[in-house]
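In this section we walk through a basic example: taking a raw amino acid sequence and producing a predicted 3D structure, encoded as discrete structure tokens. The instruction is simple. Fold the sequence below.
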Amino acid sequence: MKQAVDYTLYLVTNRELMSSKTIEKSVKEAIKGGCTIVQLREKDISSKEFYDIAKSLRKITKKHKVPFIINDRVDIALAVNADGVHVGQSDLSLKDVRKLIGKNKIIGVSCGNLEEAKKAYKNGADYLGVGAIFPTNTKKDAKDVGIDGLKEIINNIPLPIVAIGGINKENIENLRDINLAGVALVSAIISQKDVKNSAKEIKKIYKNKIKKG
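The resulting token sequence is shown next.
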């Protein structure tokens, strides 16, 4: 049976941007600060290195009972028994990924417009990552969807929607009143000197528990 997932604060890794000495420490601190799901997304590394990192992070996320998603690499997701896979528009098709990982794993799909979102929903995606909402340097090929495009997808697709792209503590309050499942962040958490408290502060602002600085 597929697990229920809390997408509220979705951490996406990027070792080039992190302030911590190791990715393990970065992820541990982010989880302690309130991240509810973790995606391993690392480019330009060998399969062996990706596997070693994935195996290490799988132990951490399992210990803290946080779902662990692998970006693109279905083979590594299977090898470390990750909770799911996230794919983009140019990656292996959702249908093929589902055949490989089975019906009980999570599949997320990156979407930049309503047409892509409709296709992902039709093909059995479990959630959508929609963006870029704001300008971002972490994914330079992402087209800006904006808040209006995000709302259009939310209003037409009955799936959990996670906003991604350029989200930080200065602009996250603009997403509070939208019917999102959660927000995905990279540099706004892992690049900060205090990863744990950065995650905690962003989560509080998003949930409207405190006013922004």
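Looking at the output, two observations stand out. Strands lie at 9-12, 37-40, 68-71, 84-87, 106-111, 127-130, 161-164, 182-185. The first strand starts at residue 9 and ends at 12. In the next section we compare this with other chains.
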